[in-house]
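Components:
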Amino acid sequence: MTSLIDTSPLDISHASYAMDIPAERPWSHILRRGQTLRIIDSEGQQAVDALLYCLDDPAERYSAQDTLRVQGSAYIDLGTRLVSNRGRVMARITADSCGRHDTSAGCCSCESNAVRFGEATRYQHACRENFILELSKYGLGKRDIVANLNFFMNVPIDPSGNFTVVDGISEPGNYIDITADMDVLFVISNCPQVNNPCNGFNPTPIRVMIWDPGAL
Ligand SMILES: [Zn+2]
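Structure:
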């Protein structure tokens, strides 16, 4: 199931940016062309929902459908090119020590929680609300939220095409590196979901780091 796993030569002491994102919280940052963003699953089994927007024109944004079609594969892994709705490569996966990332299952929301897990869960915090909060800083809103990436989320697809969210396989310290091919706004929701196993029923902090072009 898992494709080639690779580790990165990047030296953590040479990173130009580092931030711990608390459990359940959003984060965003502008990633310049050639910069590499590392997302670290600090404690393991933590899903990280993500969206990318072209900085010059946010109407151009990450497209899950184009990404899957271009690479001809259902998972996000080493070498995957993250493609926009205009068919351009926004970024690519340049290292991956986990080996399992999803872009099929979408993000959690108050509405979907109520449908999937019952009315009592409607008021639990969710990724869609995180995205709305973070996007509002850039003049973007609900209509700008599209099908997203789910780093470290384990959604195996069986031969008949069925899939479901199951226990994450990422271990503490697993990471994925994303190198930008254009200037992008990178938005993260550190998923607060507690009703399915995507976060091991215990949302935890993650860490992000950025390296400038050419840094090792
Ligand atoms: Zn979520």
